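Entry 14. Ran structure prediction on the chain below.
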Amino acid sequence: MSSHPVLRTFLLVSTILCIVFLAFLPTLQNSFVNWDDDVHLIENPAVRGLNPNYLAQIFSQTINHLYIPLTTLSFAVEYFFRQYDPFIYHLDNLLLHLLNTWLVFVIVGQLGLKTLAAVLTALIFGLHPIHVESVAWVTERKDVLCAVFYLGAIHLYLRYIRENKKIFYLLSWFSGLFSMLAKPMALSLPLVLLLCDWVFQRRDKRCLLEKIYYVLYIVPIAWMSYIWHARLPMNNFVESILVWVWCFAFYIKKFFWPYPLFLFYKLPEPMSLTQMAYLWSLGILAVFSALLFLFWKNRFVIFALAYYFVTIFFLLRFDTQDANVVGDRFLYLPSFGFCLLMAMFWEKIFMRCRNNSFFSFLAILSLILFLGALAWKTSSQCRVWYSGTTLWSYQLKVNPTTATALLYHKLGYAKTEEKEFKEAVSRLRAYAEGRAVSFSESDVKKINEVLQWQQRALAVKPDFGNAYFYMGDLYHQLGEPTTAEELYQKTIQVDATHFLAYFRLGQLYQEEGKAVEAVRAYRQAIMVNPTNPYLLADIKAAYEKYSHEEKQGRVYQEELKKINQVTKGLSAFAENHGF
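Output, C-alpha cells:
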C-alpha cells in the first residue's frame, strides 16, 4: 500500500513533464540568434576548453558586465562534446526548465498544500509563455540554471525546517552559492528563506543568523555585477517613482495576460499622471497592497504575493538609461508566486464544485482550455526564436513602434547568417572573379535587402558604426575592397573605438600587399582593445603568415616581436588556448 502514493506521484510528475516537454518541443529545432549568443558563446574563447587555463578565464571574466561563471562553464562542457551544435544547447535549456517544473511541484507540497495545488502550480509554471524567452534563448541559460539551484536551495531549506537536519541547511547554502554563480539575481534568496520561516512560524533569532551565512557570498558576487548595472533614481523624483511603479505592474499584467510577447517594451510617454498607463499601474499596485491586507491571515496567499515582490524587487527600475527597462526573462523566477496563487484559485473552485457534477464539468473544461491556451501560445512563441531573422522580423511585425537603428541592424545582420544568403554572396564573388558560375536576380535581391536594412538603421541613426561596419564586411566578401575600405573608414569616423573596423582594415591591406598600412591598422586595433586575447591571437597569426615574404617580412617580424614583448600575458594566454 505504501508504494501507491509514490507511484501516483511519479505518474503525476511524469505526465506534467511530458506535457511541458511537448509544449517546448519546437525549441529543439532552433538555431542560435544574433542577440548575445555571439558574446556569451560563439565568440567567447573561454568556452572552448576545460583545462585549467580555460577554467581560470571562465571564473575571472565578466560577460556584458555580468559575473556568470557557472553558466559559461555549462557552455564549455557542451562545446567540449558537441562544439556549436545548437540542438544540445537548446535541449539542455529545456531539461533545466523541466527540472525547475519538478522542483516547483515538490516545493508546493513541502509548504503544506494539497497535491492538486502542486500539480496545477507546476503545470502553470511549466507551460506559461512568459518563460519562452528564458528557455528558447540559449543566452538565457542564466535564468534556467540559476533557477535550478535557487529552487533547489528553497527545497533543501524546507527539508531542513521540517526534519531539523543540518546537512540540508549546508546543502541549501551551497545550492544558493551555485545559483549566484549562474546569475546574480539569486541575491533575493535569503528573503525568500525568511518567508519560508514565516510560513512555518519560526520566530527565533536563529532564523536571522542562518541567513547571514548566505549574505557572506551573495554580497561580493552581486557587487561584481551591481557596480555596472546599478539603477539610481533620475533627477525628476516623480518620474522615477512612476517608472518603478510601471515596472512593478508591468510584470503582473504580463503574467496574467501574456499577449503579445515582445523582445523590447517601450515606456509609455509622457511620464506623468496624465498618461493612462501610469494610472493603471498605480491601480494595480493598490490592488496588490489591498490583497496583502485582506489575506493577511492566509499564510499561503501572503507567501505567494510576498515571493513575487522580494524576487522582482531588485529588478525594478527607477531610470530610463536603457531602451529595454523590462523583459519577459526577468519574470522566470518571480512568476512562481503567481503560479501558486492561480493554482490555489483553481483548487478553491474545484472544492466548491465537487458536489455538483455540472459545475465540476465546467470547472474542468475551463481549466483544460486555460492550460491549452498557455501551451498553444508557448509552442507558437518558441518558433519565433527559430533564428535571428524570425526573431527580429517578429519584433518589427508585432510592435513596429520599437523600431530602432539597432533592430534594423540586427535583422540585416541576421539575414547575412542564412545559408541562402551566403550561397548568393559566394556565387556573386565567383562571377566577379571570372569563374564559370551563374547567379540569379534573387541573389542580387538578397544582398540588396541586407544592405537596405543597414541603410534603414543609418536613416534612424546616422552615426551607427555597426551598420557601416557590416556593410563593409559584405563588400569585402563580394571582392570590392575600395568600397569596403571606405565603409570601414566611415565606421572609425563615427566610432573611433570600433576595434573590429581597424582589424578588418588590417586584413584588407594585407590582401592588397600593403604591409605598413596593415600593421598600422592592427596596431590601432590593439590600442583600442588591448585586453582581447582573441583579437591579439588573430593579429599574431596574420603577422606570422606574412613575415616570410621578402618585401614585407621585416615589417611583420618586427611587429611580431613588439606584440610579444608588450603583451606577454595575453600572448601566453592566446598560445595556451591554441588561437
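Residues 357-384 form the longest helix (28 residues). Will compare against last week's run tomorrow.
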